[in-house]
Amino acid sequence: MAKPLEEYNRKRDFSATPEPSGAARRTRRKAAAAEHALQYCIQKHDATRLHYDFRLELDGTLKSWAVPKGPCLDPKVRRLAVHVEDHPLDYADFEGHIPEGHYGAGDVIVWDRGVWTPEGDPREGYRKGKLKFSLEGEKLSGSWNLVRTHMQGSKEQWFLIKSNDEAARPESEYDIVEDQPDSVISDRTIIPRQRGAKATEARRPIKTPARRRGQKEEGQRLANAREAPMPEKLTPQLATLVESVPDGDWRYEIKFDGYRIMARIERGKVRLITRNGHDWTAKMPRQAEALAALGLESAWLDGEVVVLNEEGLPDFQALQNAFDLGGSERIVYYLFDVPYLNGMDLREVAVEQRRAALAALMADNESPLLRFSEDFAEDPDAVLESACQMRLEGLIGKRAGSPYVSRRSSSWIKVKCQNRQEFIIVGYTDPKGARNAFGALLLGLHDEDSGQLRYAGKVGTGFNEATLRTVYKQLKAREIDRPAVVNPPTGADARGAHWLKPELMCEVAYAEMTRDGVIRHSVFHGLRSDKPAKAISRERAQPAEKVEEKAVPKRRSGQAKANADGVGQIKISHPDRIIDKTIGATKLELAQYYGRVAPWILPDLQGRPVALVRAPEGIDGELFFQKHAGKLSLPHVNQTEDPEDPQPVLLVDTPEGLVGAAQMGTIELHTWNATAPKLERPDRFILDLDPDPALPWKRMIEATQLTLTLLDELGLRSFLKTSGGKGIHVVVPLTRRLGWDAVKDFSQAIARHMAKLMPDRFSAISGPKNRVGKIFIDYLRNGRGATSVAAYSVRAREGLPVSVPIHREELADLKGANLWNIRNLFERLDELGDDDPWADMADTRQAITADMRRRLGMK
């Protein structure tokens, strides 16, 4: 009898494909299988043909079917579903690119996911070929059927059929695959590759007509424009991330490194509004004056504000400085769209016509502070390469003919630049699965200090059958017995390796390079022969043994002032120790994160007793939860007396303390709901919405919104943050009137009230078995000495996610609680600028009243 996942593993070379093997989590998942609802996922997969992979969790694996046309909500439509090999449970989160030459080569996104509930015995139904079940996902819901057919083929042929219920819709009225094309866990999409004759035509360089500058076309007619009142609010259209430039008719602009701003103009009055709906007109008075000078009756304009450096490139730090110093005369507003103009709603007008209208009205602009964001007629790959060489972020693509929609859309895409460098090919691995010739190239670089040739990682993506054959011929002629690098890889990376004379060179794009010089997420771009191999070295800074002192961003008004002086003097032992193998993050990188995030995290830590989650050997090793210093020396970590504890409790309230805690292996910081010296009176309570991990994320959003509604009705203002894991934390600040028991009882009453109103959604009882298919409202964090993870604390999970405060307005568009991590958080903070989601928390004055307790049924 075949072992689970045997066929899946046989078809894949995990040294070259990013797909999960499932080995790392198999034991853990099996142990937890009874403690969560059964999950399902649907992955959109652009392989030999674009199709949808439908997967149901059963007996520790994902039972899988390939559905060529995707699901249909019409009960009269039977969609072919070809049964394929089982996949590991952690495949349900997989998104990425499977390299050319490997089984299933192409792009993959998670199109839908959630929980499935079988009707009857699912094992019996699966064996007999007749599964009936209900789905609750981000996109799909209601009752469905999988039925095995008697059609002959190399694989079992099933049908996926929607049952006739309230979620059903005729195919003639609605196509969910076409209407909702994007990922549910990220901002990715898949732009299907065109094939055959159409593909050849689509790959030709995009040509756009020459612009008419300096003149307006009176009476210019815009198809689909309609008279409409001026919208009071308008949410900007957002771009979806794609891995590479797609085929088709797209118009490309530079991706600016600035702040997105919408301009509302009505009867000469200009308002400049951020993406989150905040009015920043007072911060940019000169730009408002320049817009007013355009003489528009009414308009909504879309664009991005930047500050340009001496080379004419956007400089985000300079933009921040301009806002901090009130220097709006340096800020340039690049306009790229006009969804409303002079009494006409243009949102249904094709993007190229909207932009032509915008270019025409900008022809009369005389201010250097306003500019039109030009697009390019050249080949987009060439434009992207030029943008990357100029150290720009990348490109924004807009599909010709597309309307303006106030949401993230696949008709606007963003293509980001990658790092590119030449490497020496020092070896290769054997192919696995459907791959021919070789699996991956092993790469090397000369160290700039010692001149030694060092291992720099591998690349298994970017090859087609032709390049595999061509490169392989050159590899075979250069084989040697021993590696030429001084630090050859070990373990799985070295298994089946063939070593080469260090003569061949190649150019590789990669997302990042770890501190030990190994690249990740790499793509092969071709062999190089224009340089001698000895000239190829790694571009890197000198190795550091201490935390480098970094510029600390200015703290927002109304919050504690942080001083990072002296942080650079804290020595970090074992700086290159890997604490998270999945991203190659080191102990030094973690310490640098805490040093840099000090201005944001310290307001949540000031005076609060803290418990540390330490992982001295990394997140895969043993974790220690530490509330007291004991005999351990924690550099720069302070202590304060707790009247009910013979040992003093810990305080981490300085930048030096943060870095000192990281030096001792601290990953997470958890805080009390009270501050010293008034430890007997909590100043807040926290509701930790903790879901069954299999639930769709939209259930978490709905649960948070329902909780916020209840708090609003009670008259309590609340603030939000992501947990960095699966849930959301609702933080309710309080004046210091009540003791611990009263506050905890009140938070428990909220949990019980919600669970009583909606028992199918919420649980007020702890334990995984009590939250199967539900969300546990964890009130237990509100007792004396209990803790919750601090805002901006790292979590000891794969990828090192961070718990992050968010605006209430951001909740509906949030795609998960672990979106931000130690490597992308500062992009988030840069985008927010002074727009701190928790800016008003310290000034919020409110208390739990007798009327609130009565309304919750408390005595």
TrEMBL record:
Catalytic activity, as annotated: ATP + (deoxyribonucleotide)n-3'-hydroxyl + 5'-phospho-(deoxyribonucleotide)m = (deoxyribonucleotide)n+m + AMP + diphosphate
Pfam families associated with the record: DNA_ligase_A_C, DNA_ligase_A_M, LigD_N, LigD_Prim-Pol
A single GO molecular function term of this UniProt record: exonuclease activity
Name under which the protein is recorded: DNA ligase (ATP)
Superkingdom field: Bacteria
Broad class of enzyme this protein falls into: ligase
Keywords: ATP-binding, DNA damage, DNA recombination, DNA repair, DNA-binding, DNA-directed DNA polymerase, Exonuclease, Hydrolase, Ligase, Manganese, Metal-binding, Multifunctional enzyme, Nuclease, Nucleotide-binding, Nucleotidyltransferase, Transferase
Presence of the UniProt keyword Transferase in the record: yes
Cofactor(s) the protein requires to work: Mn(2+)
EC identifiers of the protein: 6.5.1.1
Domain ATP-dependent DNA ligase family profile: residue ranges: 333-416
Biased composition (Basic residues): 205-214
Segments for region (Disordered): 1-29, 193-224, 533-566
Segments traversing the membrane: none
